[in-house]
Amino acid sequence: MQKKNTIPYEFDQVDIMNKNYHELTNAGNRIGIDATFEKIAGFDAKKRDIKKIMNVRNSLLYKKLLHLKKERMSKSDFAFYRGTVDIMNYDLDNHYTSGIKALIGGDAHLGNFGYYGSAEAQLLFDMNDFDESHVGHWEYDVKRLLVSALLVAKQQGFDIEKDVNPYLEKVMNTYLNSLTHLMNLSATKRFIMPNTLPNIASTFDAIHDDRDAFNDSYLKLVNKTVQKALRSNSDYAVQKYTEIKDGKRQFIENSPVTKHVGDKTYSRLAKGYNHYLKHTRSDVHQFLAKFSIVDIVRHSVGVGSVGTLCYLILLEDPNGNYIVLQVKQALPIYENEELYNDKHRSTGEEIVECQRILQSSSDVFLGYFNTKKYSFYVRQFKDMKGSIKLDKLDLAAFCDYVSVCMSLLARAHSQSQTFPMIIGYLQSQTWMNKAFVGFANNYLKQVEIDYATFIKGEKDGHD
User: Fold this and answer.
1) N or C: fewer beta carbons within 10 Å in the chain?
2) Span 323-339, pLDDT tens digits
3) Strand positions, DSSP E, 53-133
4) Is 80 exceeded by the pLDDT of residue 15?
5) How confident is the model at residue 3 (pLDDT cuts 50, 70, 90)?
6) How is the chain split into domains, by residue range?
7) Which Pfam families is this protein grouped with (predicted)?
């Protein structure tokens, strides 16, 4: 696959040329008036060969872990969906869009939202995966979230026609109302307001005028997850993933998921870590200066991320304090059947920049470095991280969770100057919400067909 030199990270694509909110909303409205229900909702699901698209990404991955990736993707159609963002991007690239650009997460399914700690040790809930982030069409994020909601609903045995589809139309209103609420805030407040649990609740109070906006089952699940997230930190990571051996602390070997690296890889990563330090904030650099590397392992995570080069670095200071950093390979964006690489900035740097824009507050240790062959980004491992167990959601909790994720997606999109155009676009037709949900249902059929094709291919390959 040929690598294209121009990339979808040029932020001037969302330059509004000094237009005000009213002008932008009207511009979006005019675009929406020209749209049709069928253009937005229509998608013809069909059986097809998905190997060509999947092989582009797989060609960049660590070959020895491909079997683990396929194993995890085989567990369910939602797991398959999580590991095949390129397939959906390919389909959306060949589908109608409004033409309104924004900085997007690029893989905004329900599993890519979670808890983490801010630099001030506040517990935040936000988008947490930015490997696919770039300047693109805002609809990609919205549609990916809606389809993932249908997949989870199907997995949980909910009635799609009776219960889920009507609610997803309301969720589209949540997205629109959240954008409108954000537009009515001061620009400074919209920019700096962190996604703490109280702030999220406050937003829902504003857009629903209901202080009992969340169901008890959702609140119970949130409280349980929050308590677990608060216990998840570097101390927890050290206790769970390391041991004392021959008088030194090191990571616990657990092949193929966790495996110590060879001397050459260790040397390259240690050199890369020193480059990372040079690009960090001065306070972070000063803090980490007293720490030294004591161990490095390759550590596989997630579903879509399996196969990317991912490492854990154990750091220790002279007083026996430890920090665990995660180093993850940054892959080029796949769009319009091409890989995009920037000649001037590395993929790791792009992911870090996008994450800092899209998240309300980001990991203080977030950074990047490059080796001769790869680009990586760095973050703290297990920094108050936690996520809602999707298989524990009842219908009421599911509805609340999807609404919260969609509202947070709106907050991320509001960091692009073009977001009032999205408001005008969605307000232009009374059937907009139904059209987006219609697309999600049509695309759900495609995911089911592709998953069946994938499972058959895996079975035939092992016969």
Assistant:
1) C
2) 999 999 998 877 666 66
3) 101-104, 113-117, 123-127
4) no
5) very low
6) 20-230+392-462, 234-380
7) DUF2252 (PF10009)
